[in-house]
Structure formats: C-alpha cells, structure tokens
Amino acid sequence: xxxxxxxxxxxxxxxxxxxxxxxxxxMDHENMFWYRQDPGLGLRLIYFSYDVKMKEKGxxxxxxxxxxxxxxxxxxxxxxxxxxxxxxxxxxxxxGQGTQPQHFGDGTRxxxx
Amino acid sequence: xxxxxxIPQYQHVQEGEDFTTYCNSSTTLSNIQWYKQRPGxxxxxxxxxxxSGEVKKQKRLTFQFGEAKKNSSLHITATQTTDVGTYFxxxxxxxGSQGNLIFGKGTKLSVKP
Lengths: 113, 113
Fold this sequence. Notes:
The structure holds 2 protein chains of 2 kinds. By secondary structure, chain A is mainly β. In chain A, about 0% of the residues lie in helices and about 55% in strands. Chain A has strands at about 5, 10-15, 20-25, 30-40, 40-50, 55, 65-70, 75-80, 85-95, 105, 110. In chain A, the strands form 2 sheets. In chain A, strands 2, 4, 5, 6, 9, 10 and 11 form a 7-stranded mixed sheet that branches. In chain A, strands 1-3-8-7 form a 4-stranded antiparallel sheet, with no helix packed on it. The radius of gyration of chain A is 13 Å and the shape is globular. Chain B is globular and about 45 Å long. The interface of A and B includes residues 44 and 90 of A.
C-alpha cells in the first residue's frame, strides 16, 4: 500500500520564520505535489515535481519554494512565513504515467502567529 | 487559467435521500478522477473516467463522464452516514503537465440520521 508521510501533523511558527514541511513517499513515484487546502477554496496546487531536482510552479507559488534532492522526498519551504500562509498543507505523489491517481499524506496544519 | 467548476458547494440530506455533485470544465479533459475526503482526513481516490460517455458504478455510487468530456457527475443513491465528507473531482487536460490535476473546490456532504 502506498504510504505518503508528512513530517508534522500540526505546526506553529512565527511570522518571518523560515519553515520547512517535509514529505516522503515509499512507492518510488516520479511525481510529487504540494497543495494547500482552505475552506471554500478546495485544493490549490503550490508546486509539483516530476523528477529529482525538477520542479514546476503550480497555481499559487508566491512565497514558497521546494526542494527535491531525492526521489522519495519533496520539501516545501516558506521562505519568510506570513499569517496568510496559515493553512492545511497536503503532499501527494503519483506514478509517472499521466492517468494514475494521486496518493495523499495526512496533511500538516500550519499556524503562523 | 484552466478551471474545473464543482457544484453545489454544500449539500445537506436526510439519510436515505439521494445526492449528486456536478463538475464542469471550460476545456475538454483527457480524464477525470473523483476523490473523497472524510472529516479530518485526506483525499482518497475513488475512481477514474477516461472515455466519452463513460459510466461506472461502485455499489451505491454512480460516476458519469459527459459525451464532450467537459463534465462529470457523482450520484449517491440512498445516502448513509458513512457517506459524509467532501467529494472532489479532478480533471486532467490533454497535453497538460505530467501527472497534474485540476481540482474542483469540492462538495461537502452532510447526512442527517
């Protein structure tokens, strides 16, 4: 069974801090994704990666960056956290073929104070 | 940019009543996927539709993909309290970035026993 693990379930940080959210998948998937989920706005794609060291901007990349140094790990970085980045962050992975479903982690609820 | 519109945003039903959620895309989709997110949980893949006019069933759930591959629906017959959650459709464009899905904002279903 596919396992996507996010490093923290809940996280509280302060404005201006650099924040790292980690995601690891154990199924050798090529594609990995970071979404944020806010009430009434659904899932919005921040960044995705289809290979090691490759990344592409999603719909709302501003204020975020990502790192994929190893195939199984995809990190989301908030360069200087702001209160409007308080949200639920979901990581997902999928195999390389375009028709495969995405498998999600349990999410990280991030609060920026 | 590309959008997948999903309605209604909320639906409250009495247990035993039917429920339907609809998705519409402004462009033709190569395929569409449906996910369910239980309260406090993460999205879980339900099904994928690929062919024009395709209909698939999973017990009390019926999924349809429109003839023009621009719309889709999920119908639940005789809802149960276990159906509670948010249902998302997610479409993929022809020639879109590998593995990338465009999510609707979801329909949140509540079921009154």
